[in-house]
Write a structure and sequence with these properties.
Number of helices: 19
Strand content: 5-15%
Helix content: 40-55%
Oligomer: single chain
Radius of gyration: 25 Å
Strand order of the largest sheet: 5-8-11-4-12
Shape: globular
Largest sheet: 5 strands, parallel
Structural class: alpha/beta
Distance between the termini: 74 Å
Length: about 425
């Protein structure tokens, strides 16, 4: 009762309407009669605990965002709550600011479900490993805030999924999510794409163009591969973050936008800052919160559930009978290093579903790891620059060969825009005859 009294004081003081229940059964009656925008829920309760109540609500089809508040907080309990679908997780006594932040995010989620209909959920981040539990918990904490977020991780680790989940769990979920792949847009067009341009302001500008920041006004903009932006473009992005002001090319004056920025990179931006290719002030503006997507080799225990999910997905897509994987085939997958991460795994599963005629997938075509002699020869190169060059050439040749020199398919597998792959092939003089 004392905790409920304190919560009521905080939440009504912040402008929320508040109803209370002393146990799960009383809560079910109230929630059935008048579903709220969100609910605060304890774990340890007489008769039915909080997890049981959450399961009961699911069975009744009541999609009410839940913020769990408990005095029995530990990593296992928080993981259980988030896996059960909780929108947030707090321990007693709650910090007032954290409480209001979690409630605001949950209320926004509840309104999105009501307006867009049931079943509206953020994209799933599959996996039961400690690394994935931690990532989901961090997302649940960060999403309701307005903080800019930097997502760091290798290609193919699901950085865009994390960005979309952050958007869906925020109070901006009803507005636009706009993705910009900085690496895929030519340098001469990036400013027009991001900020827009006036008619006649640049060569070929026959009409006025609305930029991505304006399109995302009120919502979220996702700057993928932000480390590939030029210093000039970085300066203009910094201005948006500092002042909320966008100036289209040729406009002569700016105007205000309200945009949450989520950035992602597979580069080490600290190294980029030290080398002078990325602005230090922009880095600290973007990296208010840093989330890391782990490479697949760090959580191989998640490979079986990922494979099961992907197999089911591709069987439906290609109208195949349901397929299972033999222990030997799963062992092959778990023993692979996955340089292309989940994106590469998806490619392997898709190919297996298409090619395997039996209901059990018993073997899988995996790329061979380089022989130790090849690795030693790379390690003996005279400079880091030459090592990077030779390693990248070997990597690109390997995947081009494996994908029959189909550039579009290769680009998709290795997680880079097709234009970027063509650019690298030209720079290294890679042609099919080299194979």
């Amino acid at each position: 009762p004392g905790v409920r009294k304190a919560l009521k004081r905080i939440l009504t003081g912040a402008g929320y309407e508040f109803e209370e229940a002393s146990d799960a059964f009383q809560a079910l009656e109230a929630l059935d009669a008048n579903p709220p925008d969100a609910a605060l829920l304890d774990i340890k309760m007489p008769g039915m605990d909080g997890l049981g109540l959450m399961e009961n609500l699911k069975q009744r089809g009541l999609e009410i965002p839940i913020v769990v508040l408990t005095g029995h907080g530990d990593e296992f309990t928080s993981s259980q709550c988030l896996e059960a679908g909780a929108a947030g997780y707090l321990t007693k006594p709650p910090d007032r600011a954290e409480l209001l932040l979690a409630v605001r995010g949950a209320v926004a989620q509840g309104r999105v479900v009501r307006e867009l209909g049931p079943g509206v959920e953020p994209p799933p981040l599959l996996g039961e490993s400690a690394a994935m539990h931690q990532l989901r918990e961090e997302i649940a904490r960060v999403a309701p805030s307005h903080a800019t977020v930097m997502i760091e991780g290798e290609s193919g680790t699901g950085k865009e999924l994390v960005a979309r989940r952050l958007h869906h769990l925020s109070d901006r979920a009803r507005r636009q999510f706009v993705r910009v792949n900085s690496a895929a847009i030519p340098e001469e067009l990036i400013e027009s794409e991001l900020f827009g341009h006036e008619k006649g302001s640049v060569t070929g500008a026959h009409r006025r163009q609305v930029g991505k920041f304006v399109q995302a006004d009120g919502g979220t903009i996702f700057l993928d591969e932000v480390g590939d932006m030029s210093l000039k473009t970085q300066a203009k992005v910094l201005r948006v973050l500092q002042d909320g002001e966008v100036e289209p090319v040729g406009a002569g004056q700016g105007f205000q936008v309200d945009v949450r920025v989520i950035a992602a990179t597979n580069k080490n931006l600290v190294d980029e800052v030290q080398s002078g290719s990325f602005r230090e002030d922009l880095y600290y503006r973007l990296a208010v919160v840093v989330l890391r997507t782990p490479p697949l080799r760090e959580h191989p225990e998640d490979i079986p559930p990922l494979v099961e999910h992907l197999t089911e997905q591709f069987c439906v897509e290609y109208n195949r009978r349901p397929k299972t994987w033999s222990e030997a085939a799963l062992g092959q997958l778990k023993g692979h290093q996955w340089p292309g991460n989940v994106r590469e795994l998806k490619n392997v599963v898709e190919r297996a579903v298409i090619m395997e005629l039996d209901d059990t997938i018993s073997r899988v075509d995996l790329p061979a790891l380089p022989a130790s002699g090849e690795v030693d020869s790379l390690l003996d190169l005279a400079s880091l620059q030459e090592f990077q060059r030779q390693s990248e050439i070997a990597y690109l040749l390997h995947h081009l060969e494996r994908n029959g020199w189909n550039v579009a398919a290769t680009a998709r597998v290795i997680g880079t825009p097709r234009s970027n792959l063509y650019k690298k092939m030209r720079a290294y003089g890679i042609e099919r005859e080299q194979s």
